[in-house]
Amino acid sequence: MTETWSLEELKALTTEVASDTIEYRGKAVNIQWCELTEAEEPKITVPDDGASEEEKNEVYQAIGTAKVKAMLSKADEMNPENACGLTSVWEDLPTTLRYQLTATVLGAQTPDF
């Protein structure tokens, strides 16, 4: 039987830092993140219906990147002694690592809380 979340547990997700270690090219990368509240979500305009698929994909990728960076930054602020600092070098990271970080943080992979 599946366990049910309580309202308090769900609310606590936005104030608790989650962490995980991912493997990238044979070495560990420690990360931490925190779920965002609606007010903390990055504000990005969604493309209009007339936009090309390429334009829409670019905007949705930007939205995902902004969300992941906000989640990483929030955790680093809440737990500075374990700050990963990845947002400060985000543009310099290999895209394959950024995709893996994004998948982990957005829940495509199951993290250990």
List keywords for this structure.
two-stranded antiparallel ribbon; 3 helices; 113 residues; 2 strands; single chain; globular; 12% strand; alpha+beta
Task: Write up this protein.
- The protein has 113 residues and is of the alpha+beta class.
- The chain has helices at residues 7-12, 53-78, 95-105; strands spanning 18-24, 27-33.
- Strands 1-2 form a two-stranded antiparallel ribbon.
- A hairpin with a 2-residue loop joins strand 1 and strand 2 (27-33).
- The longest helix is centred in the middle third of the chain and has 26 residues, at 53-78.
- It is globular and about 40 Å long.
- The model has no long low-confidence stretch (mean pLDDT 91).
Give a concise summary.
The chain is an alpha+beta fold and 113 residues long.
SSE map:
Elements: H1 7-12, E1 18-24, E2 27-33, H2 53-78, H3 95-105
Antiparallel strand pairs: 1-2
Radius of gyration: 16 Å
End-to-end C-alpha gap: 21 Å
The counted number of beta strands is 2
Please identify the structural class as seen in this structure. alpha+beta
Shape: globular
Low confidence ranges: none
